Amino acid sequence: MSSAVSQESTRRRLTPQQAETVARLADAAVEVLNADGFDGLTVRAVAKRAGVAPATAYTYFSSKSHLVAEVFWRRLADGVPAPDPDLAPADRVAQVLRGVSMVVAGEGQLGGAVTVALLGADPDVEHLRLRVGGFIRQRLAQALDVDPADPGPVVDALEMLYAGGLVHAGMGHLTYEQTSERLVAAARLLLTDQPVLDQEVR
Fold this sequence. Notes:
Elements: H1 16-40, H2 43-50, H3 54-60, H4 64-79, H5 89-101, H6 110-117, H7 123-144, H8 153-170, H9 176-192, H10 194-201
Domain HTH tetR-type: 19-79
Protein name: TetR/AcrR family transcriptional regulator
Pfam family, one: TetR_N
């Protein structure tokens, strides 16, 4: 990976060699997930597939949930660019929601694993969960041209939409493609009724 995300992890700033090791572990985690599912995933199995010593893998990842959460964070940060300022606000929101909901589309069992992993109590997972939430909030705030530190009730409602949608997709109730389109449709309804929403929430 070429982005700044590849040079960091939950625990430390990475040298180029360390970043390459973490990238190999992340790629191997997806391969193990697709072969054995989340139940069969272990840090040790991922290390073996990546050609990395288990002790080395554990210096970067405290648990399999931490590893899966890191995979999701990296794909999210690399795959959801800032919204296009030339688009209308509703279209910018649609761009962000489509990007977020399609990050793990077509990735076999990764989506379901992410849903489980991000609910974990591991402190490293909690850190990444906050980082993921902050990143998506920033992108939605950019789409609506509001302050990410105080984005208001519309961004709050959009966050509830995407969180529920991704849980549904992760549980297999909807495909990520279906989730993407339903999220966009719901967001357009919400934005159409934005003055009413502002009045009711405040």
